[in-house]
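Hey L., structure's done. Input below.
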Amino acid sequence: MVLDRLDNISRYTGLSRNFCTAIEFLKKTDLSALPLGRVEIDGENVYALMQENILKDSTQAKFEAHDIYSDIQLVLSDRELMMLGTKGKVLEKTGEDFRVCEVEEVLRLEMEAGDFVIFYPGEMHAPGLGEPNWEKKCRKIVVKVKM
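Output:
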């Protein structure tokens, strides 16, 4: 997992060719102008999902992991709580690149606009969470990077 600010995203272009493509997209695109839904970048190698989510209470966290793609999750407005499962296990596959996880220990990531996190394949994470006194909506972009 990587946690950083959008201002520093260029530091991660060396991770792979697909990461370089994803990062160039994030740097050069007016993200506020993108419509909700899937955004094509480089076919199945790199694509994005523009989202506006209703945040769930942290007690409703559902952990997931991926086999094929890394996620770059960038908060664009307000804030979002994400959790990283630090101890637990990846369970059954419920989609092409989606696995349900059971976690025992977590690390809380309180993200604000301009913060991003990279979750690598196999890392257990729960996005889309909030706290009772936070805004209930969060706009973000999730860039899927094929590994």
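The chain has a mean pLDDT of 96. The chain has one domain: 2-146.

-- N.
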